[in-house]
């Protein structure tokens, strides 16, 4: 009876939901309370459920779910709440992902740091993108793989037991006492992870943080499909999207916008793109410079996601370290890079620099000619050998229309990879998908980055490609208009408040 009540209510909610639950990347930021961002939405949603209130006006007043669509959004929260209710679980113990492999990596990451064993059990075949050897070699994760006939054959294990289930029917989730983490793969939608048992409660926040930094929640459109599957007690309806045509259009647009004719890659978010870049470069370093230390040079006050992700990667690998790059205040980016690269060269280490242009939060642009010269400068190790040249990883989210990479451009002669978050200018706030592209000197690196984008199952979804295919052609014009509007506003402030900075 309770199950019927839940399913009936969810059917009404999906029929009456505000349209911005589905088509924009943030919801009700006007009533956003950061301290309650992880709980406030579901607490108030639960009250509506108890009152059997699914009216559009009531749903529209619900506050922001989490802090950003990447970590969670109304429809992913409703999906997780629904599955939890149907299985007598706490909603926080159900976590949806756009990726099919990152939930596995999330458990492996925590167990690596906790020095705890992991056994991954599965029936049939593992996801095609799951490369066990690369995960062990590059990510440093440790685990055992065991194929079983069914959940009854899962053996006792001293550590965490993960069970991977592949069912397009989202209702097919059977928990077994020996399963610590049930990961249900949805071929079209992503995956749903269930954390089973009180002994595993400590994993909740760590797994959510992986979803926030290295991937995204199941997208709104896919979460809605999953909810409809749940309500109808049927398999997910197949979606027909001209993904190859949209993808081709997006890649062509990126080439045109950046002025680079190399291969572009598109990920589910800016941070999932950055994660593929970092892991791809680490993979390249392990193969080409075995045994040498890897240094990611990152401004300490850049966007929290960039800084936090870099430090999270370094925490898992003994040969990876984050080096601070002061860029704001009295610090000059060019001078800071010169100083840091001299030190890394002396140590015979591998320098990877992640920097934003303009800088954050001061919105400063370095002297680009001097920047090029510092990045090109030949350096020596302590023993007089030629030092490894840097890779400059440029976050140009806030100036994606500027050409850095093409033939004859300012960074065309330095190994440079540019990336951008798609939730800003590229999609006009309609999706999170981000992209990266390099110059001619980074073709081999892009291959490795593509490998890890696929391994993490973090490529853009079909709908994200469709949105970008529509939005990217008008991006430069929208940026120009945004500049004009902002310039008018700043001029007005200068006039009426001349002493203000």
Characterization of the model:
By secondary structure, the chain is of the alpha/beta class. The protein folds into two domains: 2-232, Aspartate Aminotransferase, domain 2 (3-Layer(aba) Sandwich), CATH 3.40.640; 243-474, 3-Layer(aba) Sandwich (Aspartate Aminotransferase, domain 2). The protein contains 17 helices and 13 strands. It has helices spanning 2-16, 20-23, 40-50, 56-60, 74-86, 102-113, 132-138, 203-214, 220-232, 243-258, 270-288, 304-316, 333-346, 368-376, 443-455, 462-471, 475-496, and strands at residues 94-97, 118-122, 144-147, 160-166, 181-186, 190-195, 264-267, 294-298, 320-324, 350-356, 391-395, 416-420, 434-438. It has a seven-stranded mixed β-sheet with strand order 7-13-12-11-10-8-9, sandwiched between helices. Helix 11 packs parallel to helix 12 (304-316). It is globular, with a radius of gyration of 24 Å. The N and C termini lie far apart (63 Å).
Distance between the termini: 63 Å
Fourth-level CATH superfamily of the largest domain: Type I PLP-dependent aspartate aminotransferase-like (Major domain)
Q: Would you count the extended β strands for me? A: 13
Order of helices and strands: HHHHHEHEHEEEEHHHEHEHEHEHEEEHHH
Helix segment count? 17
User: What fraction of residues sit in β-strands?
Assistant: 5-15%
């Amino acid at each position: 009876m309770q199950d019927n009540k839940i399913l009936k209510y969810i059917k009404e909610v999906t029929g009456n939901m505000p349209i911005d639950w589905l088509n924009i990347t943030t919801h009700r930021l006007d009533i956003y309370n950061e301290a309650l961002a992880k709980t406030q939405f579901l607490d108030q949603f639960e009250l509506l459920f108890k009152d059997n209130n699914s009216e559009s006006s009531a749903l529209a007043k619900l506050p922001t779910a989490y802090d950003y669509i990447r970590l969670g959004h109304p429809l992913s929260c409703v999906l997780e709440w629904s599955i939890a209710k149907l299985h007598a679980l706490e909603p926080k113990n159900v976590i949806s992902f756009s990726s099919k492999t990152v939930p596995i990596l999330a458990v492996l990451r925590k167990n690596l740091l906790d020095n705890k064993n992991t056994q991954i059990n599965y029936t049939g075949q593992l996801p095609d993108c799951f490369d066990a050897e690369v995960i062990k070699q590059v990510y440093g994760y440790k685990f055992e793989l065991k194929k079983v006939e069914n959940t009854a054959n899962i053996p006792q294990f001293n550590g965490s037991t993960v069970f991977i289930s592949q069912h397009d029917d989202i209702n097919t989730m059977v928990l077994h006492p020996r399963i610590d983490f049930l990961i249900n793969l949805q071929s079209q939608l992503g995956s749903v992870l269930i954390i089973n048992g009180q002994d595993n409660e400590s994993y909740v926040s760590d797994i959510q943080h992986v979803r926030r930094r290295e991937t995204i929640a199941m997208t709104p459109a896919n979460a809605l499909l999953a909810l409809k599957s749940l309500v109808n007690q049927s398999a997910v309806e197949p979606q027909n999207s001209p993904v190859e045509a949209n993808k081709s259009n997006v890649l062509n647009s990126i080439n045109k916008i950046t002025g680079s004719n190399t291969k572009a890659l598109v990920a589910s978010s800016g941070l999932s793109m950055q994660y593929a870049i970092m892991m791809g470069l680490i993979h390249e370093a392990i193969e080409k410079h075995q045994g040498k230390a890897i240094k990611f040079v990152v401004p300490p006050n850049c966007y929290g996601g960039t800084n936090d992700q870099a430090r999270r990667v370094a925490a898992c690998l003994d040969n990876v370290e984050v080096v601070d790059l002061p860029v704001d205040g009295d610090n000059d980016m060019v001078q800071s890079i010169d100083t840091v690269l001299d030190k890394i060269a002396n140590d015979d280490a591998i320098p990877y620099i992640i920097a934003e242009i303009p800088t954050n939060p001061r919105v400063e642009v370095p002297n680009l000619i001097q920047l090029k010269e510092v990045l090109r400068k030949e350096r020596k190790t302590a023993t007089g050998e030629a030092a490894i040249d840097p890779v400059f990883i440029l976050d140009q989210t806030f100036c994606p229309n500027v050409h850095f990479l093409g033939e004859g451009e300012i960074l065309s002669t330095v190994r440079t990879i540019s990336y951008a978050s798609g939730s800003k200018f590229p999609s006009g706030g309609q999706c999170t998908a981000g992209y990266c592209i390099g110059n001619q000197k980074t073709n081999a690196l892009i291959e490795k980055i593509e490998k890890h984008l696929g391994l993490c199952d973090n490529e853009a979804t079909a709908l994200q490609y469709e949105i970008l295919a529509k939005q990217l052609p008008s991006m430069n014009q929208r940026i120009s208009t945004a500049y004009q509007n902002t310039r008018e506003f700043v001029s007005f402030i200068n006039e009426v408040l001349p002493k203000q900075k």
